[in-house]
Amino acid sequence: MIDFAIPADLAAERDRVRRFVIDKIVPYERDPRLTAHGPTDELRQELVELARAEKLLTVQAPESLGGRGLTHIEQAVIYEAAGWSTLGPVAMNCAAPDEGNMFLLSKVADPDQVQRFLAPVVAGHQRSVFAMTEPDGAGSDPAQLSTAAIFDGENFTINGRKWLITGANGAKTWIIMARLAANPHLPEGPTLFLADGDEPGIVIERTMNTMDRNYVAGHGVVRFDNLVLPREALLGEAGQALRYAQLRLAPARLTHCMRWLGAAERAQSIAVEHARTRTAFGKPIGEHEGVSFMLADNEIALHQCRLTIWHACWLMDNGEKARHESSIAKSFVSEELFKVADRCVQVLGGIGISDETVVEMIFRDMRAFRLYDGPTEVHKYAIGRKVLRG
Ligand SMILES: Cc1cc2nc3c(=O)[nH]c(=O)nc-3n(C[C@H](O)[C@H](O)[C@H](O)COP(=O)(O)OP(=O)(O)OC[C@H]3O[C@@H](n4cnc5c(N)ncnc54)[C@H](O)[C@@H]3O)c2cc1C
Q1: Separation CA 219–CA 340 (nearest Å)
Q2: Using CA atoms, how far apart are residues 109 and 117, in angstroms rounded to an integer?
Q3: CA of 379 relative to ligand 1 center, distance in Å
Q4: Which ligand 1 atom minimizes the distance to the CA of 177?
Q5: Bridge partners of 144?
Q6: Nearest by Cα to 189 from 197, 180, 198
Q7: How many angstroms from the chain centroid is the CA of residue 266?
Q8: Is there an atom of ligand 1 within 6 Å of 97 CB?
Q9: Hey, whose CA ends up nearest to atom 52 of ligand 1?
Q10: What's the distance, CA 175 to chain centroid?
């Protein structure tokens, strides 16, 4: 049976999350610790403690690690409410990249790795990064991976350069993708490694200046300079990094959709209020068809995006990988929500591009959503190939 009803207990929890975000988190949106390079670690920790006090921290984590083991559909409902403020997911420890990294580690890490690298992230005490993208190698096409790992039977030595690595500065749990060279001990090819951010071979060259500022510590350029890791640093099986990246990406790209849906709703609520109260040419601007149609287009897009997300979640909750459907969702939702944010700026008139409202920040932060976890064109490339295969 297909059922769109949200169970009463989930609806109550959604409302509690929304209230928490509005009452406790939104006031921090003007905190100076929300910098051009994202929230500082100090701000993050303060927000995390607020969520912990409300028992809203890392609710998606497996029950064995202290979470509630939310289904994908439950995540969709809760993350949408959390996304009302871009700081909501930071507080509740369900923001990228930690949320996707926790998911991956809960599936692939061995028990020792879980204790050392995953448990402190779930507890909100440390952050994590996923280091894949490279200036001259992996990007849309991760098979171009150029960071190299050499194994001598005892230790791995990793050399290479990455960029756009979210949260690099200050993160302790590092998931690193490197190409393992042929060796007599392990299969070669793209491989994942776990490392402590304090390792001397991990060099943060700089934090990039980007147009978004919703991710803790921004995005780093990183060099692995003879990074030496023991055999236990191997995450999962050697040579399987691209498979694990897919395991991480299908749900992770959906959770981006859920959080940004909440942010787009917030922008719409501000635009609606403005359209009701601001007058021009003898009436509220919302009574001019040009404005009411923009708000209607937003309403239609928000509804379509929600249904698209829920469908992919439903498939995954029923044991499907839903790679195709999550590609459809990511490309559709990122494009549509960005148009929603743009129309909200337009409805607000000149103040739309100022920080008089949070719409301007949502607009800038959301732009990157069309690029990360697969640019729209790359998802369409994959969808198109599947369509042609029949
Ligand atoms: C805010 C932000 C945070 C990020 N965080 C991380 C992170 O934490 N860790 C990490 O490893 N990476 C991260 N990334 C990198 C992100 O994953 C890459 O930007 C993305 O995979 C695209 O790779 P690229 O930037 O190298 O673009 P390129 O691969 O250079 O592609 C450029 C453009 O070419 C087009 N294109 C490419 N392939 C095709 C195709 N087959 N068909 C049609 N058009 C195509 C697309 O329009 C694409 O936007 C982040 C990026 C951003 C913007």
Answers
A1: 26
A2: 9
A3: 11
A4: 11
A5: none
A6: 180
A7: 18
A8: yes
A9: 372
A10: 15
Beta strands in 110-154 (DSSP E): 128-131, 148-151
pLDDT digits (tens), the chain, 390 positions? 678 899 999 999 999 999 999 999 999 999 999 999 999 999 999 999 999 999 999 999 999 999 999 999 999 999 999 999 999 999 999 999 999 999 999 999 999 999 999 999 999 999 999 999 999 999 999 999 999 999 999 999 999 999 999 999 999 999 999 999 999 999 999 999 999 999 999 999 999 999 999 999 999 999 999 999 999 999 999 999 999 998 888 899 999 999 999 999 999 999 999 999 999 999 999 999 999 999 999 999 999 999 999 999 999 999 999 999 999 999 999 999 999 999 999 999 999 999 999 999 999 999 999 999 999 999 999 999 999 998
| Strand ranges in the chain using DSSP code E only, listed in sequence order | 34-35, 38-39, 128-131, 148-151, 155-166, 173-180, 189-196, 202-207, 219-230, 234-235, 279-280, 283-284
Q: Is the CB of 171 under 6 A from ligand 1?
A: no
Cα 101 to middle of ligand 1, angstroms: 18
Please work out whether the CB of residue 377 comes within 6 Å of at least one atom of ligand 1: yes
Tokens of 145: 């991976």
- C-beta 221 within 6 A of ligand 1: no
